[in-house]
């Protein structure tokens, strides 16, 4: 837990919560040395390998936390893959709705999302409707993650077709409230038999030797404060130049380019009906 920590704070007994912006004393493990760049956002194994080559302090709190950290000026760069349920697009509409200013959105890469099951798919799970079966246990991702948004968007479509609300359908899923923090944690839960299925990236499924039913592609972008753009440039170019990507990853025609800036009012790239990016340009994810 403390592997990436710089220090700790002491919380008084029976202290239930801390107000945002409250000042506290931080006890450092060692003399603090400022990093060249501060990254806050969603963890990604491909990007993590690239960041390891630079003087970057990375804190992984999920995509929404990263976007908000950039908005508040607490981070130079965020990794985000948040699906906007209203537009079916990734990242730019969400950043705009949150009022992000003075930042640019740089196109990153696409990751293939799908249903992860044990080898041989013993429950015969094929699509989201199988999550409603009484013999299927699901492992979810936390609210605010792109994967959770993708699931809820598809559940919402299914619910509307039956004249129901999202909550009505969610209550029928065994394990909807059972959450795993990362894609690999989802895969581990399935591999260990604690769940029958989860939604995650192909790489996590292959890492644990599990079956994978593709659902679509999501976009993982970099949201960068304008004043940090020059410092982030080498990282952007490293992503753009990468030749060996993990299974289930693809670069896009716009990879490395600024696709939205200022108040984040627009984003380029078409999305597939399931909420994934059309990586082939043929209208299908």
Q: Could you walk me through the main structural features you see in this protein, from its secondary elements to its overall organization?
A:
With 285 residues, the chain is α+β, with helices and mostly antiparallel strands. The chain folds into 2 domains: 145 residues, 3-Layer(aba) Sandwich (D-Maltodextrin-Binding Protein, domain 2); 103 residues, D-Maltodextrin-Binding Protein, domain 2, CATH 3.40.190. The chain is built from 8 helices and 11 strands. The strands form 3 sheets. Strands 5, 6, 7, 8, 9, 10 and 11 form a 7-stranded mixed β-sheet that branches. A two-stranded antiparallel ribbon has the order 1-2. Strands 3-4 form a two-stranded parallel ribbon. It starts with 6 loop residues before the first strand and ends in a 25-residue tail after the last strand. The C terminus is likely disordered.
Intertermini distance = 36 Å
- What is the level 1 CATH name of the largest domain? Alpha Beta
Report mean pLDDT, rounded to a whole number.
87
| CATH domain topology of the largest domain | D-Maltodextrin-Binding Protein, domain 2
Biggest sheet overview: 7 strands, mixed
What's the CATH H-level homologous superfamily of the largest domain? Answer: Periplasmic binding protein-like II
Radius of gyration (CA) equals 19 Å
Helix/strand structural class: alpha+beta
The CATH architecture of the largest domain comes to 3-Layer(aba) Sandwich
**Total count of domains:** 2
Tell me the number of helical segments per DSSP (H or I, 4 or more residues long): 8
